[in-house]
Amino acid sequence: MELVYEILKSMWNTSLSYKGVRTNMFGIPQFKNKSDNTIRSTMSQMKNRGFIENYDQCWHITPGGREYMRMKINSLKKFPNIFKKDAPKNLMVMFDIPEKQKAEREWFRWHLKKFNYKMIQKSVWVGPSPLPKQFMDYIEKIRLKSAIKTFKLAKSHNFDK
To answer: Which are the contacts of 103, defined by CB distance < 8 A and separation ≥ 6?
Structure first.
């Protein structure tokens, strides 16, 4: 997961610190595997994006940071597979989800695999149609719809050839 998400998650319900270093509930410093420069740079970006603010000599999550967390948590919503393994592969899905939405892109690819879609190229997949309505409604809710195009194929794609 991205560092911004991890930092916000650690700040969500905690204000524990030891000598200015944020710690988990056991007092163990977090983010030991990240360099000071990486943490400092990420914190600066988060402050600029309005996710965190510094007052009383301590960093706090802002309402904007909480909203970002809610979106990230919601982006992990899971949908059941309604397709049979041998369902005809007659829908092509093409997408171009920006790098800044990497988590959503990985979530989307994971669901395509779960729905028995096969990858033709990194962002071109073929599988059964139609995609579930609840899934497509959720795609619109998390603002991915404009990055995704679907095409109904005239005949089912055969991967055995």
So the answer is: 1, 2, 5, 72, 75
